[in-house]
Amino acid sequence: MSEPATVLEPLRPTVQPAVLAPLALHYEVEQFLYLEAALLDEWRFREWLELMSDDISYVLLTNTQAQTRDRRRSKQPPLTYIFNESKFQLERRVARLETGMAWSEEPPSRTRHFVSNLRVLEYDDEHVETSCNYLIHRASKQRDIFTFVGTRHDALRRVEGGAGWQVYSRELALDEFVLQAPNLSILF
Amino acid sequence: MDDRLNVRTMVDAKKGKIKPAIYTDPDIYQLELERVFARSWLFLAHESMIPKAGDFFTTYMGEDPIVVVRQKDGSIEAFLNQCRHRGMRLCHADGGNTKAFTCAYHGWAYGLDGGLTSVPLEEQAYRNKLDKSRWGLTRVPRVSTYKGLVFGNWDNEAPDLETYMGDIAWYLDGFLDRRDGGTEVLGGVHKWVIECNWKFAAEQFCSDQYHAPYTHASAIQVLQASPANKGDGKPLGDGQTPRPVWADALGGVQFGGNGHGSAFFFTEKPDANVWVDGVVSAYFRDTYAEAEARLGKVRALRLAGHNTMFPTLSWLNGTQTLRVWHPRGPNQIEVWAFCICDRDAPVEVKDALIKSHARAFGPAGFLEQDDSENWVEVQKVLQGHMARKTDFCVQMGLGFEERRDDGIPGVTNYTFAETAARGFYQHWADMMSAESWEEINALSAAYQKELVHE
Fold this sequence. Notes:
The structure holds 2 protein chains of 2 kinds.
Chain A: H1 23-41, H2 45-50, E1 52-61, H3 68-72, E2 81-85, H4 87-98, E3 110-123, E4 127-140, E5 144-158, E6 165-174
Parallel strand pairs in A: 1-6
Antiparallel strand pairs in A: 1-2, 3-4, 4-5, 5-6
Chain B: E1 11-12, E2 17-18, H1 26-37, E3 42-46, E4 55-61, E5 64-70, E6 76-80, E7 95-97, E8 100-102, E9 109-111, E10 116-118, E11 142-146, E12 149-153, H2 161-165, H3 168-176, E13 183-194, H4 198-207, H5 212-215, H6 217-223, E14 252-257, E15 260-265, E16 271-272, H7 278-286, H8 288-295, H9 297-301, E17 302-303, E18 306-309, E19 313-316, E20 321-327, E21 333-342, H10 347-361, H11 368-381, H12 385-389, E22 392-393, E23 402-403, E24 411-413, H13 419-433, H14 437-451
Parallel strand pairs in B: 16-17
Antiparallel strand pairs in B: 1-2, 2-22, 3-12, 4-5, 4-7, 5-6, 8-9, 9-10, 11-12, 13-21, 14-15, 14-24, 15-18, 18-19, 19-20, 20-21, 23-24
Helix pairs in contact in B: 1-13, 4-13, 13-14
Family (chain B): Belongs to the bacterial ring-hydroxylating dioxygenase alpha subunit family.
GO molecular function, one term (chain B): iron ion binding
Pathway (chain B): Aromatic compound metabolism
């Protein structure tokens, strides 16, 4: 008998109304996400990995166009993974960049990760769930410029030492149907 | 013969030389749309993507938008995705289910069978004088299915699909026919743009095993079994023969014929590439006996290797990626990649395979990233005048073509060869200059006969 594979669902809507987190917590989380972005942009990938928990789930799915009739029935053409990473696989991506032979990043591209519209969706003493929009600008080779715009949900866990937090879940959405870049060789 | 753009002077398969203007010239590109893409069998969809009446999938044949539709009687039809009134794109969804296709411009509506069913203000504006039976959607006249894959061809004179495929069908069977129940597409379609000519991508999957050790050096290094690569205690592709397989003495085969091509190494065990998850590689080992009973040993063991069915359908055994290189002008392609799985595979294998497929050959894939980078940079270099006039060397294994006596069909060579590339470009030049399929077939037969000194 044929068994259907798991159906992949797009990023869920964020909760309404948003939780009003204490200013200090909001500030702390925001600074953590900025630090994380800076480590990627400064090619400090091993330090960036330290901010990802050992049980992290890091997922980006494709996007599709559906007709109104299907959307009203909550139907859409099927999705697939662009990223589905564990900590180990993220580490292998970093190891790949370190070989000096990952030709799409050789010489390495310059990236700027912008994070905005940060909202705290839920929090308790140990965890915070956030949503934010992102814009990544990538300059590579002599004159290639790519921008990636989307939204994401991050779940953070408070940890001892280090940056004080780790990401244990990152669910990304990218607002393109046909990707305009030849590859996604950078980390989101 | 009508070689109006002198392409036969740009491709010299017998000496292994290519003039790179074939990758950049806008006139050549326009002639390709007419003589290659409007005369070849082109992949449209997998049957599993449109199982029910009214299910549709939108795609392209060359640059022409196409909608592929499951009919009420279970058959499959394909139409130009273009309203007959003013040429508007009719269907804007990637896929779905519908009873009719209604144009967003003036509201002309068509049934699943492509017939024009309703026109707004038919009585008042057209005075009931419009003969709707003459204004149905432009139908792809030939649609044919091979083991789940649906193909279309605009040319009524073209050979039937299986004749067109020739020996590549034998190689494709190893990908599609391992188990009873056939295959299906898992999940959605990866779609992305690469700024390169379509022939670079198609030729590489047709003929180029040679690039793998160097282009993919980083992926091979970090994904192979090693003390650093042990993840959750198990390396990826756990239980497989260590790579590289070309280092062992078993050898391999490249096939080239009628523009199609394929290559692989012989192995002693049913080994997928290490870049699939351990669950997937275990599945291939567990189902080996069934595959061997259906396909014989060579193809059942063959779980790695590359393939192109001319012009733009390519696939990789083991990582189960099947893709079309849709042309978008001489300098750009759109890649559409599908993950192909045995329909009867257990759900945990399907879930692992769809992840492995993305990790290896999705747009963020460990291996895919490197390929696109090469093609893009070649295409940039070819904007130069002297660069376009500088011959490419396509001479690997030239003169060592043979026909085997072990049942592996077609004109073959060692895995690391450019027999399939020479065949690909020869067939391309033949299609670009021949006026009829009769002429194309005669040219192909003569070329292959000369290759193996028959």
